[in-house]
Amino acid sequence: MLKELAEVFTCRGRREGDRFLESIVEETPECIKIVAPDGGLVRMNAAGLRMIEADSWTSVAGAPMPDLIAEEHRATWLHNHARVCAGEKVSWQFDIVGLGGTRRNMETHAVPIELDDGRIGQLAITRDITDRRKVEVELQQANDRLDQLVRERTRELEETATRLGESERNFALLVKSVTDYAIFMLDLDGNVVSWNEGAQKIKGYSACEIIGHHFSKFYTEEDKVARLPWNALATAREDGRFENEGWRVRKDGTRFWASVIIDAIRDGDKMIGFAKVTRDITEKRAAEQRLRQAERLEAVGHFTGGAAHDFNNLLMAISGSLEMLRKRLPDDQRSRALLDNAMQGAKRGAALTQRMLAFARRQELKSESIDIGTMLAGMADLLVQSINPSITLDMDVARDLPRVVADQGQLENAVLNLVLNARDAMPLGGNIKVGAHAQSASTDPDVDLAPGKYICIFVKDDGEGMDPDTLSHVREPFYTTKGVGRGTGLGLSMVDGLAAQSGGRLAIESEKGRGTIVTLYLPADHSELASVTDSVETEPEPQLSRKQRVLAVDDDALVLMNTVAMLEDLGHEVVEAHSASRALEIAQSGERFDLVVTDQAMPGMTGVQLAKMLRECSPMLPIILATGYAQLPPGSDATLVRLAKPFTLKQLAESVAAAAHQRHA
């Protein structure tokens, strides 16, 4: 799971439809973080921010993680961090001290992760075990107090017996004074012959009510039927001691979970009775059960996230095969109705997968159709309140803009972040202009965009601007031009990730001393394109001009068979490989291919790694990467054509056409 989390947590090149995976990371109850080799925080999810009592990620990004570690644990943490950065997987426990001074007990599982700059850092899942440790400490303290009490009473007994020679009397006084334990004597038949205050407190009977009665009175009816009281005496008589836990019954009929010890008492070789000690450990047992239940729920959450990949493969095989079968069925309405019913079942399976993922992350992430003009108008007051009085804000939003499909909350945060950056670039005041207009990708050759209509949201300032060197690094995570404590370097990289995930781009124009223009390009919602007054002619989908020779790679035999069948149905010649290593052998044997279609998550070698090795021999080879995850590892080849699992025949055909178009572009 840490490997998949690394992909979810670090990649910015996701499709909008797969963005729900990032929410797993953000909404999971455990802290998920990435730490650089020098100890600086590279990334931390919302749960982690809560654990360290940070108001926002921007307030702690880049901060030294060791500063948050309790001083007595800091050396161990640094040692284990170095081990992880050296390539080990390490699990350990330590205490953190949050920004608000709260100390928490943590348990972490860390693995190495390659950062964008090539360094090896630490990716860790850390859970707050403060409550668990508190229960454990309280239980231990209770046991220690009880042990100490028994030791003190025993010492008092020994001292009194030595001084007065009345050991029996003082022992009776000791037993009577212990109120957290029920301590009493039984005769050889199991009848109660003595009774201390602890027994009365725990079981509810006074001495006069219980002495002379059989101790089976404290057992449940089912235990009496099973002869447990008598079997316990038999064990103590034979072995000298009987120990067990189980339900016992008080005078009022209520039950409690008891820890029981029965010792045989002997006078030389003669057995004279039994000593019985009972503790009420109901709360301890309940705490242990709550802990086990919490651990089970954690395991279920991790399982549901990891199972999504397997479900996608199963749905891929089922839905793809049904789609291929439908094309081959005769024109029989009953058969088609049955097949359509099966395809509906596959769609329900996909919906079930979505619900499982929603459970793992505790909420769903939904995109929506957004009217940019309405959104920006609604943000106007917030933007004005966010800037200094010495700065003026102008809005320039074109009318009748097409809608876009995005997460409105994230989009609003992106605009606010850009405005705050512009504000910080003008410490002496100035002007910020926020606007939006429609634009065709072909009219801006400097921006790498697919053909089509885009909505451009821009933020322009007349502040300090950036020189070419700064501009070349400004998109990188954690790169900042602000002073210490004033910037995290995450703002633009997050906006860049949102744009790429939405199918758009982020463009930045700046010149030292002449201000900055940041433009966010988002694809227009095609269902609304007709309403745009300056609409442009949509380019036709790329079409394959010839039959292609395709290498299909997938470690799942069912998915591979389905992919091969789809490609052959599209008229291509297909060679299949059941692993990345086998695909590499085929490619290195001299066979030539026009296209490679490969799965991403494969044992031994991922699809991204395979693509890199194939491109070393054939740099222009088109490669389609099929994956059920939204993210790819940092440094993945941007020219890889992404194909989301499970995919249909139409989606596969479009990806093949896109790959061919890319090759001839």
* Beta-strand content bin: 15-25%
**Using only CA atoms, what is the Rg?**
35 Å
Termini Cα gap: 38 Å
Highest CATH level, the class of the largest domain: Alpha Beta
The CATH architecture assignment of the largest domain turns out to be 2-Layer Sandwich
The CATH topology of the largest domain corresponds to Heat Shock Protein 90
| Major sheet description | 5 strands, antiparallel
| CATH superfamily annotation of the largest domain | Histidine kinase-like ATPase, C-terminal domain
Contiguous runs where pLDDT drops below 50 for at least 5 residues = 357-365, 483-490, 528-545
Q: What structural class should be given to the helix and strand makeup?
A: alpha+beta
Total tally of structural domains: 5
Number of helices: 20
- Read across the widest sheet, the strand sequence of neighbours is 2-1-5-4-3
Number of strands: 21
Mean pLDDT: 80
Shape from CA axes?
extended
Helix content: 40-55%
How would you concisely characterize the structure shown here?
The protein has about 675 residues and is of the alpha+beta class. It is about 45% helix and about 20% strand.
Structure description:
The chain is an alpha+beta fold and 665 residues long. The chain is built from 20 helices and 21 strands. A hairpin with a 5-residue loop joins strand 4 (103-114) and strand 5 (120-128). The protein is extended. The relative contact order is 0.09. Residues 357-365, 483-490 and 528-545 have low confidence and may be disordered.
